[in-house]
Amino acid sequence: MRIIFKTDYMQDIRPWKDGYQLSLYLLLLLVMIAAPFVIDDFYLGELTNVFVWALAGLGLMVLTGHTGQASLGHAAFLALGCYINIILIEQGLPFMVAFPIAGVLTGVIGMVVAVPALRLHGIYLAIATLAMSILVDDIIVLTEPWTGGVGGKYAPSVNVFGVMIDRWGTPREFFYLVLGVTVIVTLGYINLLRSPLGRSFIAVRDSEVSAQAMGIDVARTKAISFAISCGITGLAGALMGLFSGAFNNETFSVVISIQLLMMIVIGGLGSIHGAFFGAIVVGFLPQFLSISKEWVGGVFGSNTVAIPGLEFGIFGMILIMFILFEPMGIYGRWLKIRTFFELFPFYRKDMFKRQKSYLKTERLR
């Protein structure tokens, strides 16, 4: 049993529990840095895709996981970040300037949209954001002179500190670009949760009435959360466009929004780890199904048959299983296993029993 003995208040708000946890994260980072030298370009591309999805999951986690506002429209902000980044590059701005501007502009637009949308609660907010995602699809088609319409656009090579980076031509450099952005955003996210603003997000999530009673401006907190969430999602969209190479209005469909929400639920709502665990499922599930079909075809001596909707069907089954048997997601299950070994033999079965998270006054909202 490992016990952390705290002797100072600052130990409660530091990013890492102790030096042991920090060393594990540093070791994981070193493994990721060494990955391009160990795996081939195909699996390196899949790993890059996982980090892009993780970045998008972090964006949605700010709003849904830590502020409690359901959103089914984050594909719209992925599209905004992607198109703004490419359009600015085409206008002559270097990538290192266009990329952060894309995130900031997406965040500002998200905050403007949030003013009327966040007056809604629960399923009504989800429907409003879903309508937003559908509307952006039509806007992309109507603004063809800037977006390319149905024909779409092609992502150019980008210059990062004098190094030309292309998804297909230089996969190793592109991986390090995505990894660097993900690490920076994750560190910023960790520090956000330690700040008064991050704590106000969690207070609004747990109970808006109680948060308001403590002096938190609920409307302002929701708007800032929406802006930060959309800004991070815009950065993910910019990288997603560079990763795909070519994109149009169908690239960022409503299905992406639903997939993002399911991803953070499976990974574990309300935790940074959950965004990464969910991204691993989303990133590697298609390849796992493809390899499995080839293996089954090889064993039974038959040709593999493409089954429409198989990927989303299995993804939906995984989601249902987690909702029924492990609502805390993959990270929640890992947390229980880790706690069991840390507290053994004093672990209690009902330690993680679900509690009511809303007041009676909020159940009808």
TrEMBL record:
One of its GO terms (cellular component) is plasma membrane. It is found in: Cell membrane. Keywords: Cell membrane, Membrane, Transmembrane, Transmembrane helix. The keyword Cell membrane applies. It is a multi-pass membrane protein. One of its GO terms (molecular function) is branched-chain amino acid transmembrane transporter activity. CDD domains: TM_PBP1_LivM_like. The keyword Membrane applies. The chain crosses the membrane at residues 20-39, 45-63, 70-89, 95-115, 122-142, 174-192, 223-246, 252-285, 305-325. Signal peptide: none annotated. InterPro entries: ABC_transp_permease, LivM-like. Pfam families: BPD_transp_2. Its main location: membrane. It comes from the Bacteria. PANTHER family: HIGH-AFFINITY BRANCHED-CHAIN AMINO ACID TRANSPORT SYSTEM PERMEASE (PTHR30482), HIGH-AFFINITY BRANCHED-CHAIN AMINO ACID TRANSPORT SYSTEM PERMEASE PROTEIN LIVM (PTHR30482:SF20). This is Branched-chain amino acid ABC transporter permease.
